[in-house]
Design a protein that fits this description.
Layout (H helix, E strand, L loop, with lengths): L3 E7 L1 E2 L11 E2 L2 H18 L4 E9 L7 H14 L1 E12 L6 H10 L3 E7 L3 H6 L6 H13 L5 E7 L6 H13 L4 E6 L7 H7 L8 H17 L3 E4 L2 E3 L7 H7 L4 E4 L4 E4 L2 E5 L3 H9 L5 E6 L4 H10 L6 E2 H8 L10 H6 L3 E4 L2 E4 L1 H5 L1 H8 L1
Protein name: Heme chaperone HemW
Main location: cytoplasm
Function: Probably acts as a heme chaperone, transferring heme to an unknown acceptor. Binds one molecule of heme per monomer, possibly covalently. Binds 1 [4Fe-4S] cluster. The cluster is coordinated with 3 cysteines and an exchangeable S-adenosyl-L-methionine.
């Protein structure tokens, strides 16, 4: 039996960032206790003693989680799953939300991968993003993590920030590299409907770097990280070596099975992708009734399954094997990417042996290629 991944969504934050559209709520100790009780009930309802080799705590701000809450979740996972010894356990961390007691407990319980939501190493940009930490907080957090022996640390960076000077992004990237992290993730800021940033954007209260400037920033990042030895293995992700790729996230891009727990968490199994309720109280009520709190279900059929496979696999820089695709689906990749030959002619997609892969130029225009699939 192939091992599955477990995702735990912790929705609480000290303050919601104005660009964030993830399901999140202001932290409350009482609400956290209630929520963790329901998470453990959901694990009991859904888990069937599958083998687990990755656990990922996302949010929200899971680094706010109390030690008691974290211990309860681990106890439930170990009770209802078969956990492999070489487990990858990731927790997302906001700078300034950790202390020595917490890190000591994390080490003891087995957390071995940290993803720090840096976003920028420019204080003025952090203010624009509505972040509650400073560059100084990030440095203190990183130093403390190293002091406690965490040797697999990812740094998240954002580019295309309102009013951003590209040179500030390059400075942030250089600063990140100076810390010698094992992994770097880089995301362009997307203005999502329903966020405070969206309201301000449609009112014309701020401007964003234009498409060419945005493309130049990411091309610079790709080239620099490649020069200093990072492996660009997924559109937004770079690892020091092949052993430092995020094993949990690779499950998403390889269309492998994963189980999500908590409000708005998604799962994928047996060609079915399903998401939990985003409303906290509906989530509670469903579990009270011994029902899985599923709000959305997508069943991949003979037509949509190959498209979905291409959509997620093409995010990986290794691309998709034409031979494996044909053996799996009985059709050619070109049957699902009508303009494949044009994309290859324009230098957006390349053929490497029997694999179809995005080029660097293709990475910058990936959404245009994905639209051709869907």
């Amino acid at each position: 039996m192939k091992a599955v991944g477990v995702y735990i969504h912790y929705p609480f934050c000290i303050k919601k960032c104005p660009y964030c559209d993830f399901t999140s709520f202001v932290y409350s100790k009482n609400e956290e206790e209630r929520y963790i009780e329901y998470i453990t009930k959901e694990i009991q309802l859904k888990a069937k003693s599958e083998i687990v080799d990755t656990i990922y705590f996302g949010g929200g701000t899971p680094s706010l989680m109390s030690l008691k809450a974290l211990d309860s979740i681990f106890e439930s996972i170990y009770k209802h799953y078969k956990v492999k010894k070489d487990l990858e356990i990731t927790i997302e961390v906001n700078p300034g939300t950790i202390d020595k007691e917490k890190l000591s407990f994390w080490k003891d319980i087995g957390i071995n991968r940290i993803s720090v939501g840096v976003q920028s190493f420019i204080d003025e940009e952090l203010l624009i993003l509505g972040r509650i930490h400073t560059v100084s907080d990030t440095l203190k957090t990183f130093i403390l993590l190293r002091e406690y022996g965490f040797d697999n640390i990812n740094l998240d960076l954002i580019y295309s920030i309102p009013f951003q000077n590209p040179n500030n992004f390059y400075k942030s990237l250089d600063f990140a590299l100076s810390l010698n992290p094992e992994h770097i993730s880089i995301y362009n800021l997307i203005i999502e409907e329903g966020t405070l940033f969206y309201e301000k954007y449609i009112k014309g209260e701020f401007t964003l770097p234009d498409n060419d400037v945005e493309a130049n920033m990411f091309m610079y990042a790709m080239n620099l990280l490649e020069e200093v030895g990072f492996i660009h293995y997924e559109i937004s992700n770079f690892a020091r070596n092949i052993n430092l790729k995020c094993r949990h996230n690779l499950k998403y891009w390889n269309q492998e099975e994963y189980h999500g727990y908590g409000v708005s968490a998604y799962s994928f199994a047996n060609h079915i992708r399903y998401g939990n309720y985003k409303n906290l109280f509906v989530y509670y009520e469903k579990i009270n009734n011994d029902e899985l709190p599923i709000e959305n279900i997508e069943i991949l059929n003979d037509e949509t399954y190959p498209k979905d496979y291409l959509f997620v696999k093409l995010r990986l820089m290794e691309g998709v094997s034409e031979k494996e695709f044909f053996e799996r689906f009985g059709k050619n990749i070109s049957d699902y990417i009508p303009n494949l030959s044009i994309f290859m002619k324009e230098g957006l997609i390349k053929r490497k042996k029997d694999r179809i892969c995005l080029t660097k130029k293709g990475v910058l225009l990936a959404n245009e290629i994905f639209r051709d699939i869907l």
